[in-house]
Amino acid sequence: MSLAHPDAMRSTRPEPTRTAPPFRPDYTTPRMRRYLLFDATGFLYLLVGFVVLRAIWALSSGSEAWAALLRDFQNPLYVIFHALCFVSVIFVGVRFFRLFPKAQPPRVGPLKPPPGPVIFALLYTVWIGVTIVFAAILAGVWP
Amino acid sequence: MSETETKTFVVTRFDPDRHAEPTTQSYEVPVRSDWKVLDALNYIKDEIDPTLSHRWSCRMAVCGSCGMNVNGQPKLTCKDSLAQYGDSVRVEPLANFPVIRDLVVELEGFLEKFKQVKPWIIRAKEKAVTEGTYSQSPEELEAFRQFSMCINCMLCYAACPVVANEPDFLGPAAIAIGHRYNIDSRDEGAHERNQVFRGEGTVFSCSYANECSEVCPKHVDPAAAINQAKFMAVLDWAQSLVLPRGGEEK
Predict the structure, then answer these.
(1) B160 CB within 8 Å of a chain A CB
(2) What's the mean pLDDT when you consider all of chain B?
(3) What does the CA dihedral B65, B66, B67, B68 come to, rounded to 10 degrees?
(4) Do both A95 and A110 map to the same domain?
(5) How does pLDDT run across B40-84, given as a tens digit for each residue?
């Protein structure tokens, strides 16, 4: 039996009878596993932060340091790490886009958000558009 | 006449006077194909073991009394058909709540959180009865109607991973009902509630697991309410910085 925090949903007043500690929700269901996986992606982004810091340091240290960084990026471990990050970004993005439309307030002053499917379509359009622009810049095709 | 088959029910038992901690007890129950989980629990209570304690009342998914964890998932047992389960069914008290006895959980903690969000219409100045009613258009009603369908069954609390780890978190149902009043066109208490929402362990503790909405038997979608409430609490805070008297009077 797994337990939740012993004070979860406990009254601030003394209880009239002794109670058993709260059980924990079942974390083994497919939905909860997906949520835990989503939470775990935070660790990947922490590592990405360190990589970015290293890249900034390399940029400020001259062309040799930058070239060394690019060489390191060809290391299979780095390639696997970046592939993992890519999959994780898609996973987080899809989850975020699915949940974002219903988080919109019904009205802000006189303004109403567009219907959920429109927000959903806009998010994907912007995502795909930005990806194409970045891919074109990185490939040297544009501007 | 419906067919009968025997299923094994593994039920949590806890008597505060006799048990140091909860245990389980198995019961063989001849169930009919049209039975709900609650029917089997009532059969156990009536025919096998009268000491079993569980809550129930309306038997039509309206009162919200019979919430329990069935095979690990929070369910309204009067609505949850037994046909979907195999030969063994595990019935436990709702997760995240202290257990009073067997399948009965302590709800006092929830009621305290519920009161914090002021779940009633707040007016800056009450109208006299002679001035007539507060009218509301169908569109204004539609804005909050979904969030007013909550029956306080507590399934959302039992599913929430944040409730399991943060005792101060107001939780899905309480925030959903607070948000319901915040977006009610007759209400003028949003600023008061938003101060509660911005406090420690409140709307921003939600990590949007969305489990509350997945298990809600009335499709209230508390996760949507909480995340809308986050936005409105921030907007209210920003307004309080620029408006006279912190935007208290609207």
Answers:
(1) yes
(2) 94
(3) 140
(4) no
(5) 999 999 999 999 999 999 999 999 999 999 999 999 999 999 999
Question: What is the C-alpha end-to-end distance of chain A, expressed in Å?
Answer: 60
3-state SS assignment for residue A111:
strand
Element (H, E) at B38: helix B37-43
Which residues of A fall within a CB distance of 8 Å from B208? 99, 103
User: Are residues B239 and B249 in contact, defined by beta-carbon separation less than 8 angstroms?
Assistant: no
Residue A56 belongs to domain spanning = 21-99
A8 lies within 8 A of chain B by CB: yes
Same domain as A93, residue A111: no
Q: Which of B228, B169, B207, B172 is nearest to A35 (CA)?
A: B207
What chain B holds in terms of domains, given with CATH numbers, is 4-105 (3.10.20.30), 108-247 (1.10.1060.10)
A84 and A112: one domain? Answer: no
Q: By the CB < 8 Å criterion, does A17 face chain B?
A: yes
Q: Which of A15, A21, A105 sits opposite B231 (nearest CB)?
A: A105
